[in-house]
Design a protein that fits this description.
Blueprint lengths: L5 H36 L3 H20 L5 H20 L3
Helix pairs in contact: 1-2, 1-3, 2-3
Organism: Treponema saccharophilum DSM 2985
Keywords: Coiled coil, Ribonucleoprotein, Ribosomal protein, RNA-binding, rRNA-binding
GO cellular component, one term: small ribosomal subunit
């Protein structure tokens, strides 16, 4: 029966730890995004703006950790800002 080399086993364990860490960060970003969308749907401008700032911060944090790419973060922030502006700024 073939056995992985020790270094390969170590690399596998490291990859698994990183995968779980990245998964948690992505999940956190999705949670913040969902909270923002819910605030927009509730037409609560103050709460939505607060959630948008928190989401942008969380996305930037994920970018700095290498979990998300620069373009993905920019796209997500842009789409959320567009949603916010369409909902609250266009009506004024």
């Amino acid at each position: 029966m073939a056995r992985n080399q020790t270094s390969a086993e170590k690399r596998f364990a490291q990859s698994e730890v990183r995968r779980l860490h990245n998964k948690a960060i992505k999940s956190e970003c999705r949670t913040f995004a969902r909270q923002f969308v819910e605030a927009v749907a509730a037409k609560d401008e103050k709460l939505a703006e607060e959630k948008l700032r928190a989401l942008a911060s969380k996305l930037d944090s994920a970018r700095s950790k290498g979990v998300l790419t620069r373009n993905a973060v920019s796209r997500k922030k842009s789409r959320m800002a567009t949603l916010f502006n369409k909902t609250f700024k266009a009506s004024k």
